[in-house]
Design a protein that fits this description.
CATH architecture of the largest domain: 3-Layer(aba) Sandwich
Strand content: 15-25%
CATH superfamily of the largest domain: Vaccinia Virus protein VP39
Strand order of the largest sheet: 4-3-2-5-6-9-7
Largest sheet: 7 strands, mixed
Shape: elongated
Number of domains: 2
Number of helices: 11
Number of strands: 9
CATH topology of the largest domain: Rossmann fold
Radius of gyration: 20 Å
Distance between the termini: 58 Å
CATH class of the largest domain: Alpha Beta
Oligomer: single chain
Helix content: 25-40%
Length: 261
């Protein structure tokens, strides 16, 4: 029996009802599939039943990669590497459906990396990803709520996101300390054109560095009290960072870039 490695954030999904729900979210027959963190292959086996066109998996654990190879032979293509070291666009150009029971300890890092590397043409059609419930709630949080912050703003820039379901601790082996949530991501057709996502990161980091403070200080730090921008975007500097909409942060980033061009 395979023992999960805590250092790799491994928790294997074993609940068949949940596995069935995951593979039936979208039609995957004759599609290119990428599964991140397949673990012992429980979801892998369910995906194969749906007859995908090509099937790739990324598994960092050498022992698990060998087990998957023996179990599924030439039905899957195994990339035995760290997801954070891989440039997905080197392997995939478009129309990929991605499944991932992401390791809790690096889940936001993986998502951030994918978003930062996105071009205007997307290499995937859908992302079907599992996160710690608390992280998922931050990803999908709306403005004017306590969960809303940098992760919400960056995640929703180019992607539409919705929660599919919450998953109880008992559905995993070993049982994690927290519940999980499954999120469904699709590319946005229209989004604010930001030249460099690092500028969006800088804007959100500066504003949310002191999220309980009013907007005046971070705004002056970035824009030197520029009244034209305040009027153009109708910003009340007496509000707090969580009170500004997604769109306002994207437009603020564009204004920041324009000032420096």
């Amino acid at each position: 029996m395979i023992k999960a490695k805590k250092s790799l954030g491994q928790n294997f999904l074993i609940d068949k009802n949940i596995l069935d729900k995951i593979v039936n979210i979208v039609n995957i027959e004759d599609k290119i599939i990428l599964e991140v963190g397949p673990g012992t292959g429980n979801l892998t086996a369910q995906i194969l039943k749906k007859k995908p066109k090509k099937f790739f998996t990324i598994e960092k654990d050498n022992e698990l990669a060998k087990i998957l190879q023996n179990k599924f032979q030439n039905q899957i293509n195994i990339i035995n590497d760290d997801i954070l070291n891989i440039d997905e666009t080197h392997f995939f150009k478009k129309n990929v459906i991605v499944f991932g029971n992401l390791p809790y300890n690096i889940s936001t890092e993986i998502l951030s990396k994918w978003i930062k590397n996105l071009k205007d043409d997307f290499w995937f059609d859908n992302l079907i990803l599992m996160f710690q419930k608390e992280v998922a709630n931050r990803i999908i949080a709306e403005f004017n709520t306590s969960n809303y912050g940098r992760l919400s703003i960056i995640s929703n820039w180019k992607l539409n996101i919705k929660k599919i379901l919450d998953i109880k601790r008992e559905c995993f082996l070993p049982k994690p300390k927290v519940e999980s949530s499954l999120l469904f991501f699709t590319p946005k057709k229209n989004f604010v054109k930001i030249k460099d996502v690092n500028n969006l990161e800088k804007i959100t980091r500066t504003f949310f560095n002191q999220r309980r403070k009013m907007l005046k200080k971070p705004f002056n730090q970035l824009f030197n009290g520029n009244q034209k921008i305040i009027d153009k975007l109708k910003i009340d500097l007496n509000l707090r960072p969580q009170n500004l909409s997604l769109d306002t942060y994207y437009k603020l980033t564009c204004e920041y870039e324009n000032l420096r061009s």
